[in-house]
Design a protein that fits this description.
This protein is α/β, with parallel strands linked by helices. The chain is built from 24 helices and 18 strands. The strands form four sheets. Strands 1-11-13-12-14-16-15 form a seven-stranded mixed sheet, sandwiched between helices. A seven-stranded mixed sheet has the order 3-2-10-5-6-7-9. The chain has a two-stranded parallel ribbon with strand order 4-8. The N terminus is likely disordered.
């Protein structure tokens, strides 16, 4: 640590006068602030801009030479930084389009599925290999049928159509994006007997209704379309042919026909430029409710017909190799058990096109942070615990790379993983947004106070407190206790923390600097868009490297792991209020008292103390490391055994759901199952409370 102390006595005095750091003794906090000051001084906006331009210079869809190139470049950057780096490869089921045809047949003929319009100001926007709108894994086939507009394609939208006497069975459904994940829309369409599904980007959500469109503003022009995978990974993510186990050499693979997560109807995305041709050709009743009117300058009718459309898809599925980049900075604690514990930093490198925001802003930041951590290590400031940076492949398909690696290393992760800090994208704006487990809220309140806002508005915490930021990509929802502190959403799904949190029980957070972003998964999500609108000057890329790095170092260096399980207990009490009210409305006689008693044991816990010798801190940290795992169950959730966390799970919309086993049983009207799930959850909470109380000496 000699290099850290060479930073100067004035810094040490200032650090000593700063507020305490959660998880650190006073002496350790002084040392930690010196290390953090050294780290925060290192990230460079200019270097981030150059890295971002390099990563986004060509398309890099998973399973292609472009993705292989990016993986090798990322690995080379980490090796140059001095990190122990490897590429972990998996052979998995992916898919690519061979033919996508969509044609309006009546009341007039018009070829649709047109390419996104090149923009002269963005030299990458005319790439011919990206001309086709498509959904990965969509079923190949041809359907010709009348069209019904189904609003956002949710269950409640189909119910409203049924009450209005509009039949969707055997027809093509036209659904707006947003208010749910495309896979959830596809599964609901299947359940309703829809023959094919078209999803489109409506200007009400991400186009001209929101503001100026690219290149004048950050919102999507009428020709932009949202590529993406259509797969039901809210049932089980990862390689569709190895559900629940890693796609390692020699692994058992099921037949495609046995997969629960592959769609069984053709689906395709369109731009608003194309979708409006269908919408304006529809008759039938006008919008069935106010929110059925999109942003087009015409009345939205629901049909069916007279619009008639032909959808013809040839999108073969095939096994290809994906490549995860794993970089490690080994821990330096003299106790091998502590040194081998892992703080996992997570991002992915594959993109549907250039990935200006998603994911290359996050990948850029990860490389810059890896460089800074390597610099600190060479100056004698290695962390106590190991920091692992995972840059996953094929996230865009079905969270594939992270899921396969997490399943392969499940035992090690259950034993040693401290937390997963996921940055899918680091920035599309200037307002901090986060989804996290309740036990990490206090931690992130402290971390964000440490990072100056690049726009001079105080700290990142100050800007976070001043107003809520919501992510166009995020599926977290606000739930739990209400306080005067900045709000953190709860975790849904849709990014790479899923295997670590929902399957393995590793405390997780997913965060970014958010802002107006209307070009998600389109050809316009590019370096030029980022340079103009997402982060001019790339200062927030550098700020995210600092924030992500300070969070990693605090978890890696803490005397006692900075988890606040009392916050978990208080949130659980609120979740119980909600599900108990649902049960009462249905006159379901469920005894929630045992469950509430266990949640209140957690709520009564104090903050873990960093004081004490190794004989005190070792069991205390072990309890904190294991407590989230106590909230999982090997049998998983009913109908979804891969999802083992009993407090949180994603809905088909990807939105977060609390107390999923109990809640879903109540919604199904199954009192016996709800009571059984409540008992299972009470046992899990009791295990965590027993462990944490014992470690606290209670």
């Amino acid at each position: 640590m000699a290099a850290a102390f060479a930073l100067g006595g004035a810094l040490a005095v200032a650090a000593a006068e700063d507020p305490a750091i959660f998880g650190f003794t006073a002496a350790s906090a002084v040392r930690e602030r010196e290390v953090e000051a050294a780290l925060v001084a290192l990230p460079s906006p200019a270097r981030c801009e150059a890295l971002h331009a390099q990563l986004t210079r060509a398309p890099h869809v998973a399973g292609t030479e472009g993705a292989k190139r990016v993986a090798e470049e990322v690995a080379a950057q980490f090796r140059e930084a001095g990190l122990d780096t490897e590429i972990a490869s998996y052979d998995v089921l992916l898919s690519w389009p061979r033919r996508v045809e969509v044609e309006l047949l009546a009341p007039r003929r018009l070829r649709l599925a047109r390419p996104e319009a090149p923009i002269p100001e963005d030299p990458t926007s005319g790439e011919p290999s990206l001309a086709t709108p498509w959904h990965a894994y969509a079923k190949s086939g041809e359907v010709t049928a009348e069209v019904v507009y189904v609003n956002h394609g949710r269950a409640e939208d189909y119910d409203l159509l049924a009450r209005a006497g509009v039949e969707v069975r055997g027809r093509i459904a036209l659904a707006r994006y947003f208010r749910g994940y495309r896979g959830g829309k596809s599964l609901e369409a299947e359940r309703r007997g829809v023959a094919a599904l078209i999803t489109y980007s409506d200007p009400a959500e991400d186009g001209f209704v929101q503001g100026d469109v690219y290149p004048k503003g950050p919102w999507g022009p009428e020709s932009h379309f949202q590529r993406g995978a259509n797969v039901y990974d809210f049932i089980v993510p990862g390689d569709p042919l190895t559900p629940g186990w890693a796609s390692t050499p020699g692994a058992r693979r099921i037949a495609e026909s046995e997969s629960q997560i592959l769609p069984r109807i053709p689906t395709v995305p369109l731009s608003f430029q194309d979708a409006r041709e269908i919408l304006q050709a529809l008759g039938g009743p006008p919008r069935l409710a106010t929110d059925w009117q999109g942003g087009g300058p015409f009345t939205y009718h629901v049909g069916p017909g007279p619009a008639r459309v032909r959808v013809s898809l040839d999108i073969p599925r095939e096994t290809r190799t994906i490549r995860d980049v794993i970089a490690r900075l080994p821990g330096a604690d003299p106790d091998p058990a502590v040194a081998s514990q892992m703080v996992l930093l997570s991002n992915h490198h594959d993109a549907w096109a250039y990935g200006g925001v998603d994911p290359s802003s996050g990948t850029t930041t990860a490389i810059e942070l890896g460089r800074a951590l390597g610099n600190l290590a060479r100056r004698g400031m290695r962390p106590r615990r190991t920091i692992v940076i995972g840059i996953w492949d094929a996230e865009e398909f079905t969270l594939t790379g992270s899921t396969e690696w997490g399943e392969e290393h499940a035992d090690e992760l259950r034993a040693r993983a401290v937390a997963c800090l996921n940055v899918d994208a680091s920035t599309s704006g200037d307002r901090f947004s986060i989804s996290a487990v309740p036990s990490l809220r206090r931690f992130f309140h402290e971390v964000t106070r440490r990072i100056p806002d690049p726009n001079g508005r105080g700290s990142v915490y100050d800007v976070w407190l001043s107003g809520e930021a919501t992510s166009v990509r995020g599926y977290g929802v606000m739930a739990g206790e209400r306080t005067t502190e900045p709000k953190a959403a709860i975790l849904g799904s849709g990014s790479d923390y899923t295997v670590f949190f929902n399957h393995l029980g590793v405390p997780s957070a997913d965060f970014l600097f958010d802002g107006p972003y209307g070009v998600y998964h389109s050809i316009y999500d590019s370096h030029e868009w980022m340079r103009r609108f997402g982060d001019p000057g790339f200062r927030y890329h550098a700020a995210m490297a600092s924030l992500w790095g300070v969070a990693a170092l605090r978890l890696a260096n803490a005397d006692v792991l900075p988890f606040d399980y009392a916050a978990y207990g208080r949130d659980l009490d609120v979740y119980l209020d909600e599900v108990e009210a649902m049960a009462r409305l249905r006159s379901m006689p469920i005894d929630f008292a045992p469950l509430r008693a266990q949640s209140r044991r957690l709520a009564a816990l104090g903050l873990p103390s960093p004081e004490g010798g190794a004989e005190v801190l070792r069991p205390r940290n072990e309890a904190l490391l294991r407590a989230e795992r106590d909230l999982t169950r090997p049998e998983g959730l009913p109908g979804r055994p891969w999802f083992q966390h009993l407090v949180y799970a994603p809905l088909p919309s990807y939105a977060a759901e609390t107390l999923p086993g109990v809640r879903e049983a109540v919604l199904d009207g199954d009192a016996a199952r709800a009571s059984a799930q409540a008992a299972v959850l009470a046992q899990a909470l009791g295990r965590a409370a027993d462990r944490l109380e014992a470690a606290a000496g209670r």
